Amino acid sequence: MSAPHPGLDELVATVALLRAPGGCPWDADQTHESLVQYLVEECWELIDAIEAGDRAEMLEELGDVLYQVLFHADIAAHTGDERFDIDDVARHMTAKMVSRHPHVFGDREAETADDVVAFWEDLKADEKPHRTSVLDGVPRGMPALALARKVQGKAENAGVTAQDAPWPAPAEPSSVTAPATEEELGRQLFALVASARAQGLDAERALRAAVREFEDEVRRAEQAAAEEPRPVE
What we know:
Blueprint: H1 6-19, H2 25-29, H3 32-52, H4 55-77, H5 86-100, H6 102-105, H7 113-127, H8 144-156, H9 182-198, H10 203-227
Helix pairs in contact: 1-4, 3-4, 8-10
């Protein structure tokens, strides 16, 4: 049984009123594209609030992110070639979550979070058969560190690890001690960025370039695997 959400309904109505004739000219002029910068900013502000552990800020920033979702849905509802609204968004997401959780809504069994992760990739592959690589769908606009982590995780599903990167391994072991904590890791990364900056190097651009090289290696491995003759059963 669905529960009423008068606060949410009021916010949806507020967005519609602001964008309707006689409402706010700025809101009425916005497009999906013009709002991207605000969506990115609001997401980072929410992350700041979460990391700071500030619950009052989280409440506000979650509202700001929610407002962006409602804003985009209202734009779509009044765009001739889109014509979907927030209910369509919600229904689509419900169907997606039901599909992604057959251990809850179906007959598949999963007792641990690791069990769920193990078969999620198969579920995604069934949903998006047009994707030919584990890297398809990875957002290219992610910050370099997050992108590197995401690509490495996806690559493991294709049997490729960071050790398979196409550049030569260093001749001698690195003098930098592997960090034991996130605090140590953060300080090492900070020092590395500072060193790069002192040499006129762009750490963000450099890491993105390395990720692209690694992605090429992953795709080559996928292609080689696809071309291997299958055993006759």
